[in-house]
Specification:
Pfam family, one: Peptidase_M20
Number of helices: 11
Shape: elongated
Strand content: 15-25%
Structural class: alpha/beta
Keywords: Carboxypeptidase, Hydrolase, Metal-binding, Protease, Zinc
Active site: 104, 165 (proton acceptor)
Number of strands: 17
Radius of gyration: 24 Å
Largest sheet: 6 strands, mixed
Number of domains: 2
CATH topology of the largest domain: Aminopeptidase
Organism: Kitasatospora indigofera
Mean pLDDT: 95
Order of helices and strands: HHHEEEHEEHEHEEEEHEEHEHEHEEEH
Protein name: Glutamate carboxypeptidase
CATH superfamily of the largest domain: Zn peptidases
Length: 402
Amino acid sequence: MSAPARSAVTAAELLPLAEAALPRYLAELAELVAVDSGSYSPHGVNRVADLLATRLHGLGFTVERTRPDPGHGAPVGDVLVARRTGRLTAAAGGRRILLAGHMDTVFEDGTAAERPFAMVGAIAHGPGVSDDKGGLLAGLTAVEILLRAGWDDCAELVLIATPDEEIGSPASRPVTERVAAGADYALALECARENGDLVTGRKGVADLQLVVTGRAAHAGIEPERGANAALAAAHHVVALQELNGRWPGVTVNVGVLRAGTRPNIVCPEAELRIEVRAGTTAGLHLAADAVRALAAREVVPGTTTTVVQVDLCPPMEDTPAARAMYAVARGAAADLGVTVGAAATGGVGDANLIAGTGVPTLDGLGPVGGADHTPQEWLDTSTVPTRVAILAATVARLGRES
């Protein structure tokens, strides 16, 4: 990464603006958390999109709403894409920066009323307060304070907010990948790790289905005429689980096993659902190839096994480009006397899809929070000004290059 053509606005300069913005941040966070916006609640997700759109229009963004095709799944809310053109062309060193977050939560309708937004000291609680409503608002606030500081040194700022990240982004994925294709850098707005670390790597996931075909027979009269698919599946489970530990950072999990219909029938068919996770694309392919090799073995005479790849989410690899972005964010944090580490996680998110298009990606840019997906979910609002200033300064440093 080349050095900026001139000194960008610093986190220290931005911190007073971030501190002044905290009351509005908290008020808007309470408003967002009060909206039930589970992945399967499109009306709630779209209400969140309405609130974000109003805020983005006020910051000079143009906003586009797309209702994605759910395919064979349940309907989801809109994908929101907002754009604001900077003062620099690409030829003049301007860069396109993508901010990415999601509007959906894992919680059912009614949760916001059962567990309303609440503050216990500086700790905020409520459904989605950390994952990812606090992060989304951090992105908006970072843009706001940059503009107040007079910064406009980029080619374009783009923000995407998705409606279905918590269920794997099946409907929004094409939109995310299309928007990401034009970006130079991506900053994902999931909240920081509990110790404040940023995320430089996320494992990718391959979902595989194994279908074992055997031959039915009467279990009491002529079992020798059958070929037991359940027995073959059991052999596969043991062999598949033994793949764990073969490659660093690669895990294989047999999460679902279904077989048979009656105890007096030799089982003619079984199904296994496998999840492979790896920090690199090469690791995913190695493990998936090993699964296929195991499936090709006839572990029970008369049975056959076929493998179908149900889904593939690319890893967000810990690359030199991601590390260069981390160095920029770490430098912004150091300007405030804050040390931020780099972490890798096995969880996936929209950052995986963005990184899969080849865009350098850094995640965990939101405030510090935790206990996601649980009733104890929390956000440390005392970290909001610092994390917003770090995020804003990182955007400023990345927005213009020589």
